[in-house]
Structures are given as C-alpha cells and as structure tokens.
C-alpha cells in the first residue's frame, strides 16, 4: 500500500523519536513517503497532491488542526485519511477510539490497514471549509483565537492554557446580554437565537483531560446529519448545568439552557456584528453570515 506520512513537527506531542518509530513501523509493510508541514494550510496542499498522485492513505501525525487541513485536501477523493494523535487534545483520534500515545495508536492503525478497515464518513462544511467533528461559532472561537495567540505556550501548557483562555474570554470578551446570532434553516426560517452555537458532526465536542465533554452521545460518524447546540445565554447560571451534564451523563437535549436542533443538512448562521468561528479547533476569522452544510460520504477514513 502506498502511504504518505504527513507530520506536523510543531504539534504539542510530536517528538523526533515518535516520528522515527512510526515511520519505521509503517515502512515494514507499506511503501511510505514522509512529508512535514511548514506553514498553515500546507497539509491541505500536501494531502491534495497525494490524492492526485494515487496514494492509498495519508497518515497524519499531528493535532486536530493538521488533521482538518488534510481532510480538506482528501474530501471527495479515493485516498483515505488516517489519524495519529500528535496534538494537545487529539479530539478526533480519540473519537475514533485511538489511544493518546502516538506509537500505541500506530500499532492499531497498522492492524486496521491490514484488515482494510476503511469506510466513508460524512463531513460538515462551513462556507466550503470541511470539518471533521465540530464548528464553533462565537464563544469557543474567541477562546481558540486567544490560545493561538499564545502559540509557543500551547505546546507546553495545553490544557491549563485553554482553561485560562476560557475564563478570560468569559470575563472580558463575551457579550452576555445581547443576542447577536440567529440560526436559520434552508428556507431562511429562524430555528434558534443565541450567543454561541456549536455545530456537531460527531460527539464528544471536546475532552477535558481524559473525560469526554459529551453533548449528544448518540451522534457518531455513521453518516448522520449535523446537530446544532445553541446557547441563548452565557451566564454561569445557564452554563454550569450544561457543563455538569456534559461531563456526567452527556445528553443536554432536555436542558432549558440550550436549544438543540438535530438532523440538519443545510443551515445558515447570521450575526451582527460579524462573529468569530472555528473548525476542529482552528480559528478562521469572523463573518456576518455562515452557510453550513452536511456532505454525506465525503471522506474515506481508516477506522481502528
């Protein structure tokens, strides 16, 4: 099998040793080429080139941002994506059941390749940018932007930095009273209003340490449409019950603090002023209008 090993050496938990060990393990049974990302967006171009050159699989050793870029290069092609955890949180790798250690995960990946365990999954897309597990609009996008502005710290203090960024964003940057955001269906009818919306393609939304932050536990990658969870308020009185439920039973659909919309294939989010958004933990800027669609069977994925 022809394999491209795509490595982001700047990712939080990628080391020279893990890169060498994984490269050697993959090369024992497959024809492997190694490429390293050098800048933002580079993984998309490398993955797209691999697909056009007939590679069977692109294996990504990096964080969720690198994985997202590679997925955008491979969507709609016959080249499969395989994930190895190399970031600080590794949400998607853990969603598909991989351990957080990249070398251990490589062993499971090799078993999956031997079994031919490849399936097509659906992706979300916001204004043409695909996402694997979620698109956050509002509050969490501001958190991601603050974390990214502290670039070098993310490698060494990932989880504490996110906690700090969350607290600072809530205290200093969040508009907690006005309702700037509307979620509309394909016909332009208003489905929800709020300050913060998460559009999910898979669950959990993220991880806090070893525990999943589960919003809709039944949502998986088996080609189900998207789910939108909208927060009308960001007051602690509203947020705390959601956080507690997400860390315990994990199903927030019955809570009055959120509006949950399921089975979405086409929606639009509008905001005045323009609102920040992120996909799979990558901050993408701000926009007054975002078109979000579900693309069924868009990506071939290696599943452990």
Please explain how this structure is put together.
With 304 residues, this protein is of the alpha+beta class. The protein folds into two domains: 115 residues, Probable inorganic polyphosphate/atp-NAD kinase, domain 1 (Rossmann fold, 3-Layer(aba) Sandwich); 168 residues, Tumour Suppressor Smad4, CATH 2.60.200. The chain is 32% helix and 35% strand. It is built from nine helices and 16 strands. Strands 5, 6, 7, 8, 9, 10, 13, 14, 15 and 16 form a ten-stranded antiparallel beta sheet that branches. The chain has a four-stranded parallel beta sheet with strand order 2-1-3-4, sandwiched between helices. A two-stranded antiparallel ribbon has the order 11-12. β15 and β16 form a beta hairpin. α6 packs across α8. The longest helix is centred in the middle third of the chain and has 15 residues. It is globular and about 55 Å long. The protein starts with a strand and ends with a strand. The model has no long low-confidence stretch (mean pLDDT 91).
Annotation keywords:
single chain, 304 residues, 4-stranded parallel β-sheet, 9 helices
Secondary-structure blueprint of this entry?
Layout: E1 2-7, H1 16-27, E2 31-36, H2 42-52, E3 57-62, H3 64-74, E4 80-85, H4 91-95, H5 102-115, E5 118-126, E6 129-131, E7 134-137, H6 139-149, H7 151-156, H8 158-172, E8 181-184, E9 190-194, E10 196-200, E11 206-208, E12 211-213, E13 226-231, H9 236-247, E14 259-264, E15 266-279, E16 282-302
Parallel strand pairs: 1-2, 1-3, 3-4
Antiparallel strand pairs: 5-6, 5-16, 7-10, 7-15, 8-9, 8-15, 10-13, 11-12, 13-14, 15-16
């Amino acid at each position: 099998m022809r394999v491209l090993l795509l490595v982001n050496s700047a990712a939080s938990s990628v080391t020279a040793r893990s890169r060498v060990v994984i490269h050697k393990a993959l090369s024992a049974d497959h024809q492997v080429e190694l490429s390293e990302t050098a800048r933002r967006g580079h993984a998309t171009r490398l993955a797209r080139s691999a697909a056009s050159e007939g590679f069977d699989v692109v294996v990504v050793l990096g964080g969720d941002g690198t994985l997202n870029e590679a997925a955008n290069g491979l969507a709609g092609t016959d080249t499969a994506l395989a994930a190895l955890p190399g970031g600080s949180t590794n949400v998607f790798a853990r969603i598909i059941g991989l351990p957080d250690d990249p070398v251990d995960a490589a062993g499971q990946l090799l078993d999956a390749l031997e079994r031919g365990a490849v399936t097509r999954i659906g992706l979300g897309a916001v204004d043409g940018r695909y996402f694997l597990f979620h698109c956050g609009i509002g509050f969490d996008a501001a958190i991601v932007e603050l974390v990214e502005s502290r670039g070098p710290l993310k490698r060494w203090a990932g989880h504490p930095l996110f906690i700090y960024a969350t607290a600072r964003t809530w205290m200093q940057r969040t508009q907690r009273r006005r309702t700037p955001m509307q979620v509309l269906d394909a016909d332009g009818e208003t489905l929800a209003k709020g300050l913060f919306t998460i559009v999910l393609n898979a669950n959990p939304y993220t991880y806090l340490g070893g525990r999943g932050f589960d919003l809709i536990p039944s949502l998986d990658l088996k080609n189900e449409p998207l789910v939108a969870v909208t927060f009308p308020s960001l007051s602690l009185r509203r947020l705390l019950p959601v956080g507690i439920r997400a860390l315990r039973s994990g199903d927030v659909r019955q809570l009055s603090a959120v509006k949950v919309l399921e089975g979405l294939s086409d929606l639009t989010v509008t905001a005045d002023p323009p609102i920040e958004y992120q996909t799979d933990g990558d901050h993408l800027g701000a926009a007054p209008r975002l078109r979000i669609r579900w693309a069924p069977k868009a990506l071939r994925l290696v599943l452990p």
